[in-house]
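We keep the chain:
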Amino acid sequence: MKTHRLIWISLFLGMQLLFSSLSFAKANDLKEIEKIFSETKALCSSENGLLWGRTLDVPILLVDEENGIIYTNTNSSKLELSSHNNIYSGALPEFINIVKGPAKIDNRIWAVIPLPLPINTIERQCIIIHEAFHCVQPEMNLKPKPYDNNHMKEMEARFWMKLEWKALEFALQSEGENMKQAITDAICFRNYRRALYSECDDCENRFEIHEGMAEYTAQKICRSNEGFKNYLQDKLENIWESDSFVNCFAYYTGPVYAYLLDQSEMDWRTHLGARDDIATLTMTAYNISLPFDMYMEAEERSALYSGAQIMGEELDRVVSL
C-alpha cells in the first residue's frame, strides 16, 4: 500500500509540475507577444504615415504552427479568438496559409507572419513592417504584375549585377561628384546587363518595386539613417556569394537606390508607380546624363570595380557547378 501511495503521490506531483511549467510557458509566450505588438504599435504611431501617406498599423497574425496557435493585434469573429489584455489568441484555423505575406480575412488584409521571430528587436520589427507594407501596397499603386527573373542565375547577369552592386556600394561611401559618378557607373552596368537580357527589364523593375520597396520601408522606419546605410553594406556581403540572385537581388538594389533618392531633393515616393524603374528616378534626382557610348564606358570602367576578379570568380563558379 505504501508503495502504491508513493507512486500516486509521485505521479500527482509530476503532473502538477508539468501543468505548472506549461502555464508558465504560456504566460511567457503571451507576455512576449504583447511586447512585440506594443513595439509595433508604438513604431507605427511614431511614423504616422509620414513615409507613404498610409499608416502601417495593420492587422497582424502571428502563427505558432508547432503548437497550433495564432496571436493577433486585432479581433475577428471568423478567427474565434480569446482576449488577453491587448492581444487576441486562438487555435490555428485550417484556412490560414502559413507563409509570410498578406491574407484577406473578414474583408481586411492581414499580415501573416510565422513564429518564431528574431530576438533582436530591430530585426523582428523589420520583418513585421515589411509584411505590413505589403498589406497597403495595392492602395498605393505599388502592387506590380507577376515577374520572373530566372535570368539572374546566368553568369553574365550575375557579373554585371555584381558590378552594379560594387558601384552602388561606392556611392554609399561617397559624396558630391564621386557619389554621382558611382551612381552613373552603377546605371551603366545595369543597362549593359539589361541589353543582354532585354526581355527582362520589366520583371527586374517589378521585383524592385514589390519586394525592394517593402524592404526599404522596413529598414527606413526601424533604423537610423546611419544604421540603414550600415545595414545595406552588411546586406551586400551576405548576398554576394548567393547561389542564385533570382529571388534576392531586389532586396539590395531596391533599398539602396531608395536610400540614395532620400539623400537627394526629389519628392520621389509620391510619384512612384508599380511600373517604374527606380534607377531611372535616381538618374533624374542626381541630374545624371549617361555617356554616349554607354556600353564601351561600362566595359572600361568595370576595371575600377575589380571586374576581372569578379569575372574570374564567376567563371570558377560555373566550372564547379
Notes: Residues 150-320 form one domain. The first strand starts at residue 60 and ends at 64. The chain has two domains: 43-140, 150-320. Residues 6-27 have pLDDT under 50 and may be disordered.
